[in-house]
Amino acid sequence: MPKHKSKTAAPSQRMLRVAEEVRHALSGVFARGDLHDPELADARVTVTEVRASPDLRHMTVFVSRLGATADKALLTLLRENQPELRTQVARSVRLKFAPELHFQADTALEHAMHIDALMRRPEVARDLGPRAEAEQDEQDGDLR
């Protein structure tokens, strides 16, 4: 059995648990405004997901700005304040090493909306046929 997992392997339970703890810690920091930078304290940042590296030394933090995608200015601000945020996480989450935080904009909602818009196009509905249209009408009725 190989010692090293491939890069496409699913995250372990420990990676998922630690990433979720880091997400909660960062969310708490942003909710309380426990930051020295007043610009970042007023930014209303939402931490949507955190992904941990297998060694738990690096965390990719996906952020958005209260329902909108994080802009470049916010990402720059987060990267500038990364050492302070790293310290806050290290105080809240007991790990051997304080993880390095890498911030990225969360575009999942925009991607889902784009796919939904594509699926609702007349060309796609025509290709899916009457059965798919009936199922879509059924789903729309359930949502109302």
Structural overview:
It is built from 6 helices and 4 strands. The protein starts with 12 loop residues before the first helix and ends with a helix. The chain is elongated. A hairpin with a 5-residue loop joins strand 1 (46-52) and strand 2. The mean pLDDT is 82. The protein folds into 2 domains: 13-106, K homology (KH) domain (GMP Synthetase, Chain A, domain 3); 111-143, no CATH class. The protein has helices at residues 13-32, 38-41, 72-80, 82-92, 108-119, 122-143, and strands at 46-52, 58-65, 68-69, 100-105. Helix 1 (13-32) packs across helix 4 (82-92). With 144 residues, the chain is α+β, with helices and mostly antiparallel strands. Strands 1, 2, 3 and 4 form a 4-stranded mixed sheet that branches.
Secondary-structure element pattern, one letter each: HHEEEHHEHH
Q: Helical content, roughly? A: 40-55%
Instruction: Report the biggest beta sheet as strand number plus sense, adding barrel if it closes.
Output: 4 strands, mixed
CATH architecture of the largest domain: 2-Layer Sandwich
Shape: elongated
Relevant terms:
GMP Synthetase, Chain A, domain 3, alpha+beta, 2 domains, 16% strand, 4 strands
Break the fold down into its secondary structure elements and pairings.
Elements: H1 13-32, H2 38-41, E1 46-52, E2 58-65, E3 68-69, H3 72-80, H4 82-92, E4 100-105, H5 108-119, H6 122-143
Parallel strand pairs: 2-4
Antiparallel strand pairs: 1-2, 2-3
In short, what is this structure?
The protein is an alpha+beta fold and 144 residues long. 54% of the residues lie in helices and 16% in strands.
